[in-house]
Amino acid sequence: MDADPPFVKEIHARAARGDAACQSASRCLQATRSVICSSKCAPTAAAYFAAVVSALQQLAHKGALENQEESFSSLLLILRRALPQLPSNLVAGRLNDIVTALTPLFRTGSTSSETSTRLALQCLSCCAEAAYSVDA
Q: Is the pTM of the predicted complex or chain greater than 0.70?
């Protein structure tokens, strides 16, 4: 855990202080770290980013948002914290994947929570900033 990026440490610290959203995100981070390490990758911000985007895509593809709201929201929180710590070209390069994963939140009839919607919009804002800075 010492090699984890700062945003991971911050989420774990907030979870230890009792923040419910961070406690849920911390559980997702532990599972994500396990996958990263089993793939023999270093637990970098880019590795967490790739794993979280992949997990979001899988949830969106399965149409499981309503059944997995807590997991989806936790993954969004992790993504939101990771984005500012990543190179802009990495974020811009995965923009389509991110937008595709988040699209189900904005469909008519979605029962997503206000928290998930707010986090998704914040993620999209970070992505737009990254894409703009790459093109600048």
A: yes
